[in-house]
């Protein structure tokens, strides 16, 4: 009862506060050419994890606040942003070693207070440069993302150059530090090294094509040092009153720098989608290959929660690799007093790339809508292990607003 009361109280505060925030985020003139923008975001989330093992069920009620200021003058922008997370209900393993043995399942949202971003940039017509601690999302975040699902997002200490010249796009990053989701009190708070992240694309009328290269040389995370080269293409084909969308990605990865493994593995993803009678249907095959069961294709900088199921079973690719056969259906509909509601259901079937091992299956479902200006989200994941890992169920109820 206490947990439910805390959750309802926190969401009520968000709902009541939101209308009063209207207009607060308007630009503030500080001089003839200098303007300041204040941005803020708050997120309250209840997460429960039930696993078929000896660990107790996790119950986590966390609040994340993020506040920043952007100063703009002469086309130059300077952004400073802080981020803090705290737990109102903390019956969960937050991954921090200083809390002793936690008899609960993991919810990777530890208490944290940090400088999230501090950057200076110049951008004009899609071209420019950004220097400092920054959020980086490349493409669909399958290889490089900000892990925005967790309360503490992933950022990078980096220099980023972007250019748009007609139909040609270039996005290049050199990062010296990967600031993880685990917070300032974690031994995994950051991983330093030399990270080269390169995308070059063509936005053509019939098809979009992007070539990419990700070269990771970690100082202390040697097992994830790698060189990845690949190509992705996407298109939309008219079909009556709708479009069929098609996309495909191929990449090859090999060990680099101090990685103790000697391997080469492939990545394949093929997706087809179509809208039918108000429903969006999608089917996907994704393969993170294995080199004979010795080592597998890894994506340590990705927004992993968005792929291979929301239960987060495959955050590190098993040495035998992963094949994910999945399909989803989504629809938007209106409810009286609420408005538009986005609903989605997805199914995954997992198996190894090497050795023909069944990794089980997973059902995912979500409902999202806005209530009094607050973004509300209900999500559920149910992973059936088939003996590979452990059966896992996760449930989330989230409220978020910002300006």
Automatic annotation (TrEMBL):
Keywords attached to this entry: Signal
The keyword Flavoprotein belongs to this UniProt entry's keyword annotation: no
Superkingdom of the organism of origin: Bacteria
Domain Alginate export span(s) in chain numbering: 40-172
Pfam families named in the record: Alginate_exp
Annotated InterPro entries: Alginate_export_dom, Porin_dom_sf
Residues in the signal sequence: 1-22
Name of the protein in question: Alginate export domain-containing protein
Organism, scientific name: Alteraurantiacibacter aestuarii
